[in-house]
Amino acid sequence: MIAIQGKTWKVELRRAVVLGCVTAGMLCVAGCRRNHFPTYPANYREYLYVANSGSDTVSAIDVVHLRLDREITVGEHPVAVLASKSRNEVYVLNSGLAGGGSHGSGSVSILDAEHQRVTAAVDVGPVPVAFALSPDDRFAYVASAGRSSLVVVDLLHRRIAASLSLSTAPTQVAVAPDGRSVLISSAAESSLVMVAADESKGRWSVRARIAGCPGAGSMAVLPDSSKAFVACSRGHQLMAVRLAWQQDLAAGRQETRADALEALLDVGQNPGYLALKPDGGELFVSNTGSNSISEVVTFSDEVGGTYLIGSMPEFGVVSADNSLLYESSLQSQQVAVYSIDDGRRKGSIHVGDGPDQLAFSASGYLLFALDRRSGDVAAIRTDTQSMFTFFAVGRAPVAIADKSFTI
């Protein structure tokens, strides 16, 4: 290819297509919507939020009109973004890592989705790496590597509610759907920490710790909160953990059970992200070291099979009807489509360079793919299994979240 100002013709053409799709080409998009796209009431709003670690911003993409709405300045080096299910708010985790690598103070930025602005920021200490929301969106649980702790943020009152020492650097955090268990994986300690949560009384305490999962990372919790799975990223196994349970019986008696290791399951090499079906019946493991996915039957802890899917699979999402798995491949420009019922790869969708995180629109009509290397977001039509358009965003995008609401 012939280079132009240090870039290839291919890159310049891609940028031209971006401009066409996002600006002048929107007339064509509007025409397509009349015939095929969902229709929305006048008071409906939906945005895809993109955390840009290199520009300390969040890009807001208008999903209704398919255009880049604006960039919102947040804290330093944002690393994750989550949308509230109960309020018109979006939360951004900022690591506080300056460009030179110094460790500043991390924070959680709170965005008003209706007015597209930051309304508050809560300091959570040095080097937060991940966070998760409680089921009622009252609290954000922040894993702090700088202090080896779990920081509990009260999102209603914009303050720190608690901080628990974990004795080791955390990697990921997850919350059980019943809100009673907060799970923290630690790659450094190869372990899973269970924290008991009593939000009504404002009490949190470390309940148990289970070791034996080398490079413990990504987690998934079943919808009934009975079991959790943890990817052992430095090996080829998945750890299944039975979660503590308590039930009040007649005559003031209680029936309880403790957290316990249930099984170690052999999957592919270097398991990473875990994608759970909405019904909880099966789990899909992205095996980055063996270019495959493993299908796990969750109730019986059985690996149904391992299948080649693409170069360095990174992230997976399952359609709302439990029929299709979409899997991004970081070392490619493809999102693979896997038929769960047929147990085979159906094909692939060409997107940008280095697809990573994926997120559905609220209707499921669009699937968004964050392309790390090309620095954009691709919009995929799920009915035709093809890329529809894409959007240039801020520098070094790392995370996405969809938020829909009415005003």
What features would you highlight for this structure?
407 residues; mainly beta; four-stranded antiparallel beta sheet; 2 helices; globular; disordered N terminus
Give a summary of the structure in a few sentences.
This protein is mostly beta strands. Helix content is 6%, strand content 56%.
Describe it:
It is a single chain. Strands 5-4-3-36 form a 4-stranded antiparallel beta sheet, with no helix packed on it. The protein is globular, with a radius of gyration of 21 Å. The protein is mainly beta. The protein has helices spanning 9-24, 26-35; strands at 3-4, 7-8, 44-52, 57-62, 67-73, 78-83, 89-94, 105-112, 117-126, 128-133, 139-144, 149-154, 159-165, 172-175, 181-186, 191-198, 203-211, 216-221, 227-232, 237-242, 245-248, 254-257, 260-266, 271-276, 282-287, 292-297, 302-308, 313-318, 324-329, 334-339, 344-350, 355-360, 366-371, 376-381, 386-392, 397-406. It is built from 2 helices and 36 strands.
